[in-house]
Amino acid sequence: MRFVLIAALGLTSAQLAFAADLPPKPVRLGLCAACHGETGMAQMPGAPNLAGQRLDYLRKALQEYRDGTRNVPLMRTAIGPLNDAELDQLARWYSAQTPQPQAAAHP
């Protein structure tokens, strides 16, 4: 019985430590989540999964969409009003998410 209790406490502590490592959910996540999913797993066909992408890559890509270096009108419109701190929050959020396996497509 003591072993089960110790194991349960250990798992609970590990889960709390992992949850503490996640950055806070960005206030501006909603528009991104409509296509890319709240946890970075795409909700729309053709939208890339962002979960687990490198932080520096996401940060740079978001800045390039906002600034027009990457010419994707939908992304520029979605990101246009965001400042550097908000872009950083989004990049941190998505880079900290764990990618999940995709369900197999049915023909």
From TrEMBL:
Residues 9-98 form the Cytochrome c domain. It comes from the Bacteria. InterPro entries: Cyt_c-like_dom, Cyt_c-like_dom_sf, Cytochrome_c_Oxidase_Subunit. SUPFAM superfamilies: Cytochrome c. Keywords: Electron transport, Heme, Iron, Metal-binding, Signal, Transport. Residues 1-19 form the signal peptide. Gene3D superfamilies: Cytochrome c-like domain (1.10.760.10). PANTHER family: CBB3-TYPE CYTOCHROME C OXIDASE SUBUNIT FIXP, CYTOCHROME C4. This is Cytochrome c domain-containing protein. It comes from Dyella nitratireducens.
